[in-house]
Amino acid sequence: MIIKLDHRQQETAEAIQRIQKPAYEVEAKLIGFDGIPQLKESVEDIQRSDEIFWGMVEERLKGFISFKEIGKTIDIHRLVVDPAAFRQGIGKTLLVHLMEQYGDYDFLVSTGTANEPAVKLYKSFGFAEQKRFEAAPGITLSEFLKRK
């Protein structure tokens, strides 16, 4: 079940952090960069976020997506799946849910260019790469856009 998460609650922010850290550790290995900001994010940082969080909950939090609504664009900030639940369609389900809720919006997301699973996922939903930029020396991110 996908529900809106109240990330300002201590217990929810802890659950987010509990799966976020190992998931971003996987991405860090894929892209060769351990400076991903979410790796160092505290529970308090999560609680202060101005993003909207939705989570896939099946007994416990298995994945979440966070975003900001900017005009008629949904700017996706995080799509995180607990590594213990990889390859179960959770990321896809969260993305479909978001796109259904905001069907008349454009969608924007960035990910490590070398993060092949994420790149493949976004392309499978019709996202097109708009640009690449260097996040740190030798580390390239790709920005993807899907128009309504």
Automatic annotation (TrEMBL):
Keyword Acyltransferase in record: yes
Question: Which controlled-vocabulary keywords does the entry list?
Answer: Acyltransferase, Transferase
User: Known Gene3D superfamilies for this protein?
Assistant: 3.40.630.30
A GO molecular function held by the record: acyltransferase activity, transferring groups other than amino-acyl groups
Q: Which part of the chain is the N-acetyltransferase domain?
A: 10-148
Which Pfam families does the entry mention? Acetyltransf_1 (PF00583)
Q: What is this protein called?
A: GNAT family N-acetyltransferase
> In its keyword annotation, does this UniProt entry include Thylakoid?
no
